[in-house]
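stage 2 :: seqdesign
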């Protein structure tokens, strides 16, 4: 599922190639690191304040042969890759402006793949599976609401009584006004929620602030270490994803998988909701087939002030993206779910 501009893809093909290699190394590595270093000037980096890196020792040794540490590349340079080629297995590109979502994903992955041992990863999977089973029992044979964040969010949310409710992203700002007895919050965006940007940090602070109103949080499994680090007491459910699975929700050895769609609604919220509930009321979601940028890039103004997300276009995460293609793919995935699940009602 590739939705980046063709020209940007071609000019960054070397970055994509390097990322794929490092990602496979990262996911398959059995090494648990307790130290990290930063290429170039660590004194000018704010990575040291990034959640799980706060309690990971910073290695200042210039000779990486004497320090078995992760080597973080905050600003990508091909020359730095070549200089450190002998340490390739330890390099992690965490450049927020690397290409698309790649650098941000590698930063997020560190807390799960590089800093946890096998048992700790198993514990997260087991916790997620157990919490999902409990949530499933609460949703079983019930009517549930799944709401997006478009202009109708506040209006529709006022109609909900005690039914279970799925919300996402900035809708957490309205959580005090919701009357549902079971509130499930999901968020997954690597730039807005899990990057090292100030906006992302502010969002996580909101999650912490409103955690008493939340019953369950559904996020990518690699994000669980962040929520555990900031001592979130909510029931956490970490999901993994795959491109080539036919089911919306798939279980394998107590690990939870969904179909990868790169969208919080179709990859996290709806798969869980339709798997357990008897009927889903889907609202505040734009179903426009035309004008994707105009129709699907709008929020409830009480949740998201106009142009407040425009800073994101300064990063390759958005600059490199073909939005028409992205939203066509999103619409295709959403239609696939709607067609195959007749128990979904559009509000």
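stage 2 :: out
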């Amino acid at each position: 599922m590739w939705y980046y501009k063709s020209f940007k893809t071609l000019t960054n093909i070397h970055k994509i190639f390097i990322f794929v290699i490092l990602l496979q190394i990262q996911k398959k590595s059995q090494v648990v690191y307790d130290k990290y270093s930063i290429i170039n000037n660590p004194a000018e980096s704010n990575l040291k304040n990034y959640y799980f890196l706060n309690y990971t020792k910073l290695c200042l040794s210039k000779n990486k042969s004497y320090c078995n540490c992760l080597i973080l590349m905050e600003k990508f340079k091909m020359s730095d890759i070549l200089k450190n080629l002998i340490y390739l297995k330890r390099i992690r590109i965490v450049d927020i402006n690397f290409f698309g979502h790649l650098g941000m994903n590698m930063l997020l992955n560190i807390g799960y793949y590089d800093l946890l041992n096998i048992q700790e990863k198993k514990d997260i999977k087991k916790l997620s599976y157990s919490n999902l089973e409990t949530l499933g029992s609460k949703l079983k044979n019930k009517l549930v609401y799944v709401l997006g964040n478009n202009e109708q969010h506040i209006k529709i949310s006022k109609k909900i009584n005690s039914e279970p409710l799925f919300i996402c992203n900035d809708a957490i700002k309205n959580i005090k006004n919701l009357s549902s007895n079971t509130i499930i919050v999901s968020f997954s965006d690597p730039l807005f929620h899990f990057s090292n940007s100030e906006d992302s940090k502010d969002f996580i602070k909101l999650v912490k602030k409103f955690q008493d109103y939340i019953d369950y949080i559904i996020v990518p499994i690699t994000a669980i270490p962040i929520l555990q680090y900031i001592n979130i007491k909510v029931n956490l459910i970490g999901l993994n994803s795959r491109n080539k699975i036919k089911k919306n929700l798939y279980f394998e050895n107590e690990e939870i998988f969904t179909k990868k769609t790169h969208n919080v609604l179709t990859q996290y919220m709806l798969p869980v909701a339709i798997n357990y509930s008897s009927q889903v009321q889907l609202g505040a979601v734009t179903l426009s087939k035309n004008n994707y940028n105009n129709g699907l890039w709008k929020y409830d103004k009480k949740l998201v002030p106009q142009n407040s997300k425009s800073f994101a276009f300064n990063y390759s995460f958005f600059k490199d993206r073909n939005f028409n293609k992205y939203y066509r793919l999103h619409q295709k995935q959403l239609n696939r779910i709607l067609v195959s699940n007749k128990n979904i009602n559009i509000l």
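stage 3 :: structure notes
- The radius of gyration is 20 Å.
- The CA atoms of residues 140 and 277 lie 5 Å apart.
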